[in-house]
Amino acid sequence: MQKIVPFLWFDGTAEEAMNFYVSIFKNSKVLNVTRYGAAGPGPKGTVMSTTFQLEGQQFYALNGGPQFKFTPAISLFVNCETQQEVDELWKKLLAGGREDQCGWLQDKYGLSWQIIPTVLGKMLGDKDPAKADRAMRAMLQMKKIDIKGLQQAYDRG
Question: DSSP state, 56?
């Protein structure tokens, strides 16, 4: 059992969101769906909560109601090895959502994701501050991260 599990609050779309996320990530599965009983507080038989795994990471989703919304202050950070992976995840997660800056997007449920190539962290952490600065300046101009564009900016010098 995973000790710390992200808990996601939805307004009636927990099962739909879970199925959407599980369909996108390869190493993923539905673990459990719990429905409200006669005691409520939701209508009997409707989904109360779900548990699922994305790439081995467990999540808990609750249909808690309209009181709370997602904010970009919490996001799911996805390490990507290739541009193909960045492009594929970006396209799928963005469906019905919105693009933000620097590799961030909000999906159709309002949950923020960072779709980030691992090479970006290496570039930004380079011991040569000029290279790191060029990579940062390039990233700040992007919505979806373009590895080739980053590499070109990083290598200029």
Answer: T
Token duo for residue 137:
């300046």
Cα 57 to Cα 9: distance, rounded to the nearest angstrom: 17
Instruction: Please state which architecture CATH assigns to domain 1-68.
Output: 2-Layer Sandwich (3.30)
* 121 membership: H or E segment, kind and range: helix 118-124
pTM of the prediction? 0.94
Residue type, 113: W
Question: For residue 18, which amino acid is it?
Answer: M
CATH architecture of 70-157: Roll (3.10)
Domain boundaries, the chain: 1-68, 70-157
Task: Tell me the average pLDDT across 14-41.
Answer: 96
- Average pLDDT score over the chain: 96
Q: Is the peptide bond before 41 cis (omega within 30 degrees of 0)?
A: yes
Nearest Cα residue to 146 out of 123, 127, 129: 123
